[in-house]
Amino acid sequence: MKTFVGENGAWLDSGFRAGEFGSREVMDLSLTLRPHAAVRAKVTSVGTYVPPRVLTNADLEKMVATNDQWITERTGVRERHIAEKGVGTSDLATEAAKCCLVKRGLDASEIEVIIVATVTPDMFFPATACLVQDRLGAKHAWGFDLSAACSGFPYALQVGAKLVESGMHTKVLVIGADVMSSVIDYTDRATCVIFGDGAGAVLLEPCLGDEVGLIDYWHEIDGSGATALNMPGGGSLHPATTETVAAKMHYVHQDGQAVYKFAVRKMAEAAETVLTRNGVTPRDLSCFIPHQANKRIILSTAERLGLGEECVVINIDRYGNTTAATIPLAMQTALDDKRLKKGDLVLLASVGAGFTVGATLLRWEF
Ligand SMILES: CC(C)(COP(=O)(O)OP(=O)(O)OC[C@H]1O[C@@H](n2cnc3c(N)ncnc32)[C@H](O)[C@@H]1OP(=O)(O)O)[C@@H](O)C(=O)NCCC(=O)NCCS
User: pTM here?
Assistant: First the structure.
């Protein structure tokens, strides 16, 4: 049995139970450290970018029949950032990636893999990862895009971690980026108030010494929910025609209540699964970083898990739902607020279109 000893990051053999000492100084979290990889992956840097233009609730009041009170109470969003015309997801992703590399002091040529999670690629092909690779000058990287909507970032994080755990790669850039304003109907008050544009990037590298990094994850997809949240036009089933455009099939379509009900149930379920099978109780967690879909969904999940609000990172008020970018943006908020430090036990959770569901348990290692 291993015991984590606070700030110095040392692990010792011991039989003490979690919380026995009434503080986080000495904790036995009985982590299973799935899978039993010889090399583990850790996050070593975070970089983010949002476009400068801000769309406030007051601005939306002038565009559709809505009001600040309704939006704030039902969603928690006060403002969101919106890309200018001509700015694509690769532009936001590149800026976030540059920021991430500068913070780590790395040259782009040292990056081996680039994974971009997005549902708003610049175009169907080439992959946004290729465009980002070129802009960064990451001349030794390969990469690809990953489509899992609001669970895109945690899914990409796990794929990247597996590439590190395989021993094949030591520097993997994982980016979550979306220009949701490109697929939103700004005459539909039910969706246009929720979403925003943004990007976040993290670097994955192998753990050193006793570091733990990414511990475990629980992912689930449920395609029976495909009609609850989608963008039906423009794909192989409904290629772009004047009819599909007239029918607004190139915009996000959402059954808000169906998504809401699924999200509050599944985010908590996935999180409980990953905590339970690692012998972790909510009070062992330093930080809960959920996908920022809706403040009520986040608070309801936290309540179901028995987590205090002080543990929960919320920035939906400033950014709205930026789909694949919410979790890295929230990681940056937690860092800025000094709520994330080396050794902290962190839980990520998400639900997105698909449906896609994810929960990740990790130790913060920088
Ligand atoms: C979209 C969402 C905020 C709507 O909230 P809700 O409480 O479910 O509201 P409803 O859809 O039942 O609509 C209630 C009323 O508000 C109205 N309404 C909808 N959007 C509105 C807006 N922006 N401003 C004012 N009124 C609005 C509806 O038309 C409806 O009016 P009616 O009763 O006269 O028909 C909520 O369902 C939600 O957050 N769902 C999850 C969405 C999500 O997280 N998506 C991303 C998943 S990753």
Answer: 0.92
